[in-house]
Design goal:
three-stranded antiparallel beta sheet; binds zinc ion; mainly alpha; about 300 residues
């Protein structure tokens, strides 16, 4: 007989016996009589996950990986984790171990900045205590970054500067929204501040919709340690998206595209004003072209 079936029949017995306790008058007797039923119910839940590991964290991960891009509620996680500290285990997976499990809260904050685009899922419908796995790949260096995040989080920098500091410590790395939210000390403004670092301050922070279509939803990369020239800032994200899509994510001058990226030639794409912003050039798609950073530098040097 499979373990689940054994547990189920034991539970049935216990509930059946409880019928008798329920008729009694003593509250404490009833509570104590229910304890074994609770324990068996917990075991039954964890026995549903067909892996050998005794660790609740592994069961939670198994469940998410079986249902990527599906909104999972905390109640489901409770059932399969079978322990009361499921929340801590889930947090370890999300923040410390580099699994891209996004909470409803984070999804909403990202959606406000146009960074949460998953077919068939409306970020505004996801509840705070629902979660969604957006990538099957674990980010293995996340554990190292975790220490850095922890350190920056505790400084008294502004939220924006904490985020920038963290990005600068991890140039070229994919950083999850959950990590950034953590660095920002769980402040709701984190997603807006990240967007401002890009649009107002000219830091080359790319996402799936702003220059790096290869990235999974929910990840951010600071491409290099340099700010865009003053006149190429303040481009609203929707305009940047339009320009990149129109130019098929290729440099208008040399044709470089992200697929050609390699460590010895780490280029990235930027948006350049045809008629310079300071000279009255508008922040509209018609006045912008996609250039790689090398051609962009040449363009401004000439
Ligand atoms: Zn180029
Ligand atoms: Zn330019």
């Amino acid at each position: 007989m499979p373990e689940s079936e054994i547990l189920r029949s034991r539970l049935e017995e216990l509930i059946d016996n409880f019928k008798h306790e329920l008729q009694g008058d003593d509250l404490r007797t009833k509570v104590i009589a229910l304890i074994p039923a609770y324990k068996f119910l917990n075991k039954l839940g964890s026995s549903l996950i067909p892996i050998d590991s005794a660790a609740a964290r592994d069961r939670i991960l198994y469940y998410f990986r079986k249902y990527p891009f599906v909104v999972i509620s905390k109640d489901e996680i409770m059932v399969i984790a079978g322990i009361s500290e499921w929340a801590r285990r889930l947090r370890e997976l999300r923040v410390e171990l580099g699994w891209s499990i996004i909470s409803g809260t984070t999804a909403k904050e990202m959606a406000k900045e146009g960074e949460f685009i998953i077919d068939g899922i409306d970020a505004n419908e996801i509840k705070a205590h629902q979660y969604i796995l957006t990538s099957q790949t674990q980010d293995k260096v996340a554990a190292y970054r975790w220490r850095v995040a922890n350190h920056i989080r505790k400084t008294d920098l502004s939220v924006r500067n904490k985020l920038l500091e963290y990005f600068k410590k991890n140039i070229g790395d994919q950083i999850s929204g959950e990590e950034l939210r953590y660095v920002a000390d769980e402040k709701t403004e984190w997603a807006r501040r990240v967007r401002e670092l890009r649009t107002e301050f000219g830091w080359q922070i790319a996402t799936k919709t702003t220059g790096r279509p290869d990235l999974p939803v929910g990840f951010y990369v600071l491409e290099s340690d340099r700010q865009a020239p003053e006149h190429d800032r303040k481009i609203p994200d929707p305009v940047r998206r339009e320009v990149l899509q129109r130019d098929k994510y290729k440099c208008h001058s040399c044709g470089w595209s992200y697929e050609q990226w390699n460590p010895s030639d780490p280029r990235h794409l930027e948006a350049h004003h045809i008629k310079h912003h300071v000279k009255g050039g508008k922040n509209i798609a018609e006045n912008l072209i996609t250039l790689c950073n090398i051609c962009h530098d040449k363009e401004h040097a000439s």
